[in-house]
Amino acid sequence: MELLLTREIKTDKSTIGELTIDGVHECYILEDIDRGLDSHMTTTEIAQKKIHGKTAIPTGKYEIALTFSNRFNRMMPLLLKVNGFEGVRIHWGNTDKDTEGCLLTGNSMSPNMVLNSKVAYNALFQKLSSALKKEKVFITIQ
User: Fold this and answer.
1) Residue 83, pLDDT score
2) What is the Cα Rg of the chain in Å?
């Protein structure tokens, strides 16, 4: 399964993009501010631009795994091997205050916000859970 996150709206507070699965719209994703990080940058280059808890992860392709989250006390999607970041998850939330580098789901959006986040997350989680039983899942962020 291939997920594609296309970052579309960039403000001084957040980044909002469209998430598609195999080319079909799934939901919107809210992230922290896009500071131009790319997965081909060195860890040092990323550290120079990154502001902890206020920076979107580097663009690139990442494998997704379901692992146990101590913070949420449940199995959740985790992006693997994100250079310069740890514990990047896909989860629910509404604004940049909820992200800390993670990807927040929403069925609709408004400036610096995604809405109906838990509904969007639950639908995405079901698809990821089913797919991961039979194949690897990747997300490309551009």
Assistant:
1) 95
2) 14
pLDDT at 54 (0 to 100)? 95
Full domain range(s) for residue 13: 2-106
The pTM (predicted TM-score) of the whole model is 0.95
Residues of the chain with pLDDT under 50: none
Per-residue pLDDT, 78: 98
- Looking at the 3D structure of the chain, how many domains does it have? 1
In a domain, 11, yes or no: yes
Domain presence at residue 19: yes
Query: CA–CA separation, 83 vs 41, rounded Å?
Result: 8
Tell whether 99 is covered by a domain.
yes
Non-local CB neighbours of 125 within 8 Å, separated by 6+ positions: 76, 77
CB 96 within 8 A of CB 82: no
Q: What is the DSSP string of 84-124?
A: T----BEE--SSGGGTTT-EEEESEEETTEEESHHHHHHHH
Residue with tokens 């998430």: 19
